[in-house]
Request: fold
Amino acid sequence: MTSPHPSSAASRYRALLSPLDLGRLTLKNRLVMGSMHVGLEDHPGDLARLSAFLGERARGGVGLIVTGGHSPNRSGRLTAGGAQADERTMTRHQVITREVHDADGRIILQLLHAGRYAAQPLAASPSGGRSPLSPFRSRRLTRRGTRRTVEQFALAARRAVDAGYDGVELMGSEGYLLNQFLAPTTNRRRDRFGRGAEGRRALPLAIAAAVRDAIGEDALLSYRISLLDLVPGGQTWDETVVLAKGLAERGVDVLSTGIGWHEARVPTIVTSVPRGAFVPLTAQLRSEVDVPVIASNRLHDPDLAEQVLARGEADLVSMARQLLADPHLPRKLAEGRSGQVVACISCNQACLDKVFVGKRASCLVNPRAAHETELVLTPVAPRRVRKVAVVGGGPAGLEAALAAAERGHVVTLFEATEELGGQLRLAARIPGKEDYALALRSWRMRLAAAGVGIRLGMRPTPADLAGFHDVIVATGVAPRPVDLPGFAPSAEPPAAGPQVVTYQDLLEERAVAGERVAIIGAGGIGVDVAEYLTSPIPSPTLDARAWREHWGVTDPSAVRGGVTAAPQRTEANDGRRAREVHLLQRKETKIGAGLGRTTGWVHRAELRRAGVIQHRGVTYERIDEQGLHLVEDGEARVLEVDTVVLCAGQVSVADLAAELGAGASRTSPRVHVVGGADLAAELDAERAIRQAVEVASAL
Ligand code: NAP
Ligand code: SF4
Reply:
């Protein structure tokens, strides 16, 4: 579908969609796909998949693509088999550059030397030693080693350009090798590549100059510069500005801004980080240097990206995960379909969390991401169009209905409540997960555009579904009850003792928690509920200044690295509700151990800071007028609480599937069960959505 008013659409995103000359390259718009490792870069066997992934983004209309990081040499590889810009690999990459150029796209290769972050035994860094994230101790680069590193960067850059790349980006942020040279905490050298700020800058500047020399004037040279290291002993603002000017003098065409080292204890991209939280620093850099700058981090909202450009805070905007979620975002903006952009919710669940354990990335809201050649939604031939009923409007049902309708089937979606969203709608009520509502809005708009009929407030019976060819049952889950004397969830507080409520009732505000609360179950939802009950009001995610204070982010002109110890909880300084919250589980393992690899630590830090009292290895005994009785460390005790919140996992709601199965005949609709209705154990939206798309792709 194209916009009836393309000119008004174009004007809404006038700055974002306007062309830009960058170096000697002309970009068709100011949207950059920032570098992402998607797990397809390391194996030659994945080249066709990688090419399809990048080609899809080029066809979607992004102005410039930056590839995942490739090391200039063996010691800089992220892992032992990690991507390297060697001769053979770069020759093979001609497939990629051709595919992107055929789609009228522009692409540059990122050169990344991992330094002490390399998870392999050849790791080398300015002063040796091991990072808090690495299994290996890095060796100190010798003087000869530094000279070789400069040459290897130049050689790798030349190979990239020979393979058809439009240029290269030097990864100088996130705590990788070049960033390690710049920070006194990791560079304690006494030679010309250390000893004061000028010495620490020498290697990155030498590499920039050598690379410019190697790739010539026509190719684009980008440098990813760390604006805020967020580690003690990181750079000062003055040092960053002097570096930026030095890079420009050595022929860098554009500075792509990066925030925070991987080992920083401040979140920088998860969903609880306020949108555009770091743009003010990009704007400050832009005012101090004479080279275009790219803003990044939590800038997935096109309206915000437009404002950043229109206000002159940056020259370009980088989105990375957002283009996993929707490769066609630029095209949709140009066609006046911004409401149909698939919104990234910054959950990291299917992308970064996968890549960090060596798996291929995908996207929770777009399972086709990085699987373009395998999960294909082909339009259905007119004579094969089927009448499809989808029952249940949670993530699995929404995506099943959408995918089936986009293929050309006639789809009706039934939802028992008056609102779509299921468990995702509840998640959007957690402070720090406000963006989840964006995904729901996007689904609603796309369902409407795809012509899905929506019937809210209706629980169809098998008789209601008789006229459909296919029924996709996505009836989801219900909270798992626990077998405990006195356990009786109720909407009203009892005359004596604690009120027992489900997490659903609490989050939907059908029940109100008291001042002393026990949460039974410390999985993802128990942790979320603990944050819901203790989070400052309003949520710091909605106020960048409050969020910076909450995490101890400060001015890098005043404090090296721009971080102090985060302030501890006090009633006076953060306005938290004064609640005593107990979070309980029967297992002995660390609370929150099963949370996402890149997000779990943020939640655990929030729990600690909010003073949530954690209990592991407990046995629940009963609930009575005194409170919740349990055994902990071999001793019986009672938690005298006003409210007990049930977060003990879920059970499938699959009655409809059973009824349809029981009454099935030759003429009955085909029944497909997806999401939590199929399997409630370790329910997760990523699996539910992927399963929904797989079912819809086979209809
Ligand atoms: P969950 O992760 O399976 O946790 C359920 C909790 O209930 C566990 O602490 C479990 O621990 C306890 N439990 C299970 N059966 C029980 C029983 N009969 N009596 C008492 N306690 C019992 O489930 P969830 O918290 O409902 O989350 C569902 C899914 O949503 C998760 O798998 C996760 O993927 C996703 N999610 C993730 C996040 C996040 O990453 N931040 C947030 C929300 C949801 P014990 O058996 O040790 O007591
Ligand atoms: Fe965004 Fe989550 Fe998809 Fe990653 S998995 S791209 S964070 S929505």
About this structure: The chain has three domains: 11-335, 382-478+652-697, 481-535+576-648.
